[in-house]
Amino acid sequence: MISNLAQGVQAFTSNVFLVTGDRPVLVDTGANFDAVAAVSDRVDDLEAVILTHTHRDHVGNLAAVKEAFDVDAWGYDTAVDGVDHAIADEETVQLGDHDYVALHTPGHKNDHLCFYSAEASVLFAGDLIFQNGSFGRTDLEEGDRPTLIESIDRVLEWIDPDLEEMHTGHGPSVTNDPYGHVELSAQMARQT
Fold first, then answer.
1. I want to staple 109 with a disulfide (CB 3.0 to 4.6 A). Which of 53, 84, 138, 140 is the partner?
2. Three-state secondary structure call for residue 85
3. Cβ–Cβ contacts within 10 Å for residue 42, how many?
4. In CATH, what class is 2-191?
5. Could you tell me the residue ranges of all domains in the chain?
6. Residue 192 clears pLDDT 80, i.e. is over it
């Protein structure tokens, strides 16, 4: 099961997804709210924190979560504070009950990863792609529009057209034709 622990939080934060099952993990930790209490209300233990990328709104709660649950954080770049273990491009990572392939998808930030499970029919898109054709900002440090477009195209090559769920770094998750939303993001990123 996948729950967004940041739903309804008014502070500036990313979404925070608790994936329960055989390997309970947190995808991003968010910022500016009590993520530890939100996790504790739902599960007794976490096995890992998995990071889509390390912008502050996604990792502001990282130290508190790592300390409270005695877990390590996994991300693309261990040179970034708080990232204990590297996830390589196309490495398989277990989230909950399913295996996901990690896709290195820079353009919004150099260390950005998306996670896709064909079996679960789920994509964690981080800040690369959002609903309704929106896409990650490229005006921040490490942002680059041509690279972002390449990353969106890469995700399109991996995901199934029948994808059931796309969980994004901000805004609502997409359960109505997520593949179409990714296609639209690829088009919109080329136009603006």
1. 53
2. strand
3. 12
4. alpha beta
5. 2-191
6. no
Tokens 């991003």 belong to: 28
Token pair, residue 155, equals: 């995700």
Cα angle for residues 101, 132, 76 (degrees, 5° grid) = 30
- Residues 14 and 170 sit within 8 Å (Cβ to Cβ): yes
The residue written with tokens 């877990």 in the block is 71
Of 53, 59, 44, whose CA–CA distance to 105 is shortest? 53
- C-alpha to C-alpha distance for 135 and 108, rounded to whole angstroms: 9
* 56, 108, 167, 168, 179 from 175: Cα distances, Å: 27, 23, 9, 11, 10
Q: What is the pLDDT of residue 158?
A: 98
The residue type found at 190 is R
Measured between alpha carbons, how far is 55 from 158 in angstroms, rounded to an integer? 25
In this structure, are residues 53 and 126 in contact, taking their beta carbons and an 8 Å threshold?
yes
**Among residues 142, 151, 140, 152, which one has the least CA distance to residue 183?**
152
Asked whether the beta carbons of 163 and 123 are under 8 A apart, the reply is: yes
Query: Tens digit of pLDDT for each residue in 68-80?
Result: 999 999 999 999 9
Which of 91, 86, 89, 18 is CA-nearest to residue 54? 86
Distance of alpha carbon 77 from alpha carbon 67, whole angstroms: 20
Task: Check if the beta carbon of residue 170 is closer than 8 Å to that of residue 164.
Answer: no
Note if the pTM is more than 0.90: yes
